[in-house]
Design brief:
By secondary structure, the chain is of the alpha+beta class. 36% of the residues lie in helices and 11% in strands.
Amino acid sequence: MSLLQCDECGTKFQCGSNTEKACWCYNLPNLRQNFDLAGKCVCPDCLTQGKSKQIIKMRKKKSEQRKADKNELLS
């Protein structure tokens, strides 16, 4: 993990990218229409226009629902 500073707002944040896995930014949608992820690193809030926690919570809830549905089908 690397400690980076957001190129947009200056917030310090952790980049999880390494040789075995991609950074967290690959799991969040880029809601900024004119922002290319190559060449700049921005924090989760700047990438998602302040909606990162909401998006992560929603994805976790949907994932849990899919697991529950799958378990119900297998029962």
